[in-house]
User: Fold this.
Amino acid sequence: MTDIISFEVLFGVFGKVVEQLVLKFYLKKFILHRGKQIKKIAEAK
Assistant:
């Protein structure tokens, strides 16, 4: 399974800094957690 996420940040340079420092880390963590939960549910059935 492949997750594709597309997003744009606002606020110019400030937005790019936030993207690099926060959003990429958060989204990666979110996707990995989501994958683990889906796997757990699928294997329980």
Remarks:
- The chain has a mean pLDDT of 86.
- DSSP finds one helix and no strands in the chain.
